[in-house]
Structure formats: C-alpha cells, structure tokens
Automatic annotation (TrEMBL):
Keywords: Signal. Residues 1-20 form the signal peptide. It holds the Pfam family ZrgA. It comes from the Bacteria. InterPro entries: ZrgA-like (IPR021253). It comes from Pseudomonas weihenstephanensis. This is DUF2796 domain-containing protein.
C-alpha cells in the first residue's frame, strides 16, 4: 500500500498541473512548496487499507519553525506530537468503518533534532511536520467521507489542505478548508 501512496503524485500529475494553472490564474503565481496555512494530504483507500500522508509547515501545527529551546516551545511541540499520534480522532474516521491504526510515523526536525541542527539554532529554516498513517478498516464500504474539521480545530493555523485522493471512485485532487472540511471518497 505504501507503494500506492508513493505512486499517487504521479497518477494525479495531470490534475495537479491543471490545479496549478488555476492557482496561477487566481493568485498570479504558483504556490510555494512551503506555504504557511496550507498542508498537503495524500489519501489512498485500497480494499481494507486506508493510508494518509500529511505534510505541512511546523508553523501550522506549533506556531513556529525553530528548534524548541524554551519550556513553552517544548510543550507546544510535545502537545502537537501527542495530538498527531491520535489519527482516528484527528481525522474523524467514521466508527462504522471499523478502522484500526496499523502503522504510524511522525517526522520533523522539531521532534528529534540532529546534533548539527541543535548547534545552528541562529539560522532560520523552514521546518515541516510529516505524518504517515496506515489503517485496516473492517468495513471500508462505510468510509464514504473523511471529516477534517477536528484537525482544523486542533491546529487552527492550518487553513487549507491540498488533497490528492485515490479511492473506489477513482482519483481526485481537491482543496479542503475549515469551512468545507469533508473529503468524499
């Protein structure tokens, strides 16, 4: 299944190109790879397996991108990590689908900075937080939607998800916002 998610960007490339052209028309430029308030979410549902790959600026989730040095910043990082470690709540996976978390991986330089990153605290780097989740769903037919409202409430600095989805209905690329927080499979 991980291969399916890795292939997702290539499968959706025509949709992404069209979407980028649309953004260009509306914003007079394409989106930067690291844009505050915006996160990407790749979603794949294949049989009983649901996978989610989240990538977003640390600014969206903890309010800063530098390595945590104060107790307050360390607490924000720990809280975000704890919240991200509960994907069934964060992504409001329907209980009727009977999904259980099989695999979970959280990555960010803020979570476990390498020794060389600790030394260069004065330099400003754009830090992202990435999360990968794999679920087994005993009743995947009940997985008609994925509600991201709780994610937006938990991390209010995230305003938009750029979603690439492969599901039973095919492929799609959509934007999900706090005002329209439901993703349909």
């Amino acid at each position: 299944m991980r291969r399916l998610l890795l292939a997702l960007p290539f499968a959706l490339l025509p949709l992404a190109v069209a979407h980028a052209a649309e953004d260009h028309d509306h914003e007079h430029g394409s989106l930067a790879p690291h844009e505050h308030g915006v996160a990407s979410l790749n979603v794949a549902l294949d049989g009983q397996t649901l996978e989610l790959d989240l990538d977003g600026p640390a600014m969206n989730l903890v309010g800063f991108e530098h390595l945590a040095s104060t107790d307050a910043d360390k607490a924000k990082v720990a809280a975000a990590r704890t919240q991200l470690a509960n994907p069934l709540v964060l992504f409001s996976v329907p209980k009727a689908a009977g999904c259980t978390v099989d695999e979970q991986e959280l990555n960010s330089p803020l979570f476990d900075p390498a020794p060389e990153e600790r030394v260069s605290k004065t330099e400003h780097h754009h830090s992202d937080i990435e999360a990968h989740y794999a679920f087994t769903c005993s009743h995947p037919e009940a997985l008609k939607t994925l509600d991201l409202a709780q994610f937006f409430k938990t991390f209010p600095a995230t305003h938009t998800f750029k979603v690439q989805l492969i599901g039973p209905s095919g492929q799609q690329a959509v934007q999900v916002t706090a005002k329209a927080a439901t993703l349909t499979f």
